[in-house]
Amino acid sequence: MVTLTLAACAPRASTILSPREGAAYAAEVDDIVENVLVSFSENDYARYTRDMDEGYAKDMKSSLMQVADVISAEFGAYQVMTLDHVEGRQLRQIVVYHLAFEKKPDVILEVYFNIFDSKRIVGTYWEYE
């Protein structure tokens, strides 16, 4: 199993939102996550980082570019995402998706959002075999 983490280290204590609350929150951010995934396939870094926290995108630029390169080269084109759940962890809301790519049909993606600005990504965690 391989993981690619682009998030600040924090304790993992979290609370899983109810399916209804999680679906409501995910509905607010699905388009943002979809944009990131489509941008990988199109190798469009500016579009890829459009909805990321400015400091995060700037500090992590080389890592973000490496992740995008790995994803687009090894996974192929993005196909579909399915919500698994949403959890609250300290000052973050974490939306967990199952993703399918052309060459990797089972990828888990955690997308971290700041609870004070649900329109900005502050980290990601990719898990795949």
Textual characterization of the structure:
- With 129 residues, this protein is an alpha+beta fold.
- The longest helix has 24 residues, at 19-42.
- The radius of gyration is 14 Å and the shape is globular.
- The termini are close together.
- It has a single domain, classed as Roll (Nuclear Transport Factor 2, Chain: A), CATH 3.10.450.
- The protein has four helices and six strands, in the order ββααααββββ.
Layout of helices and strands, plus pairs?
Blueprint: E1 2-6, E2 15-16, H1 19-42, H2 45-48, H3 54-59, H4 61-75, E3 78-89, E4 92-101, E5 107-114, E6 117-128
Antiparallel strand pairs: 1-6, 2-3, 3-4, 4-5, 5-6
Structural class: alpha+beta
Helical percentage: 25-40%
Number of strands: 6
Q: Which strand order do you get reading across the main beta sheet?
A: 1-6-5-4-3-2
* CATH structural class: Alpha Beta
Query: What is the N-to-C succession of helices and strands?
Result: EEHHHHEEEE
Let me know the average pLDDT.
87
Produce a short descriptive summary.
This protein is of the alpha+beta class. Helices cover 38% and strands 38% of the residues.
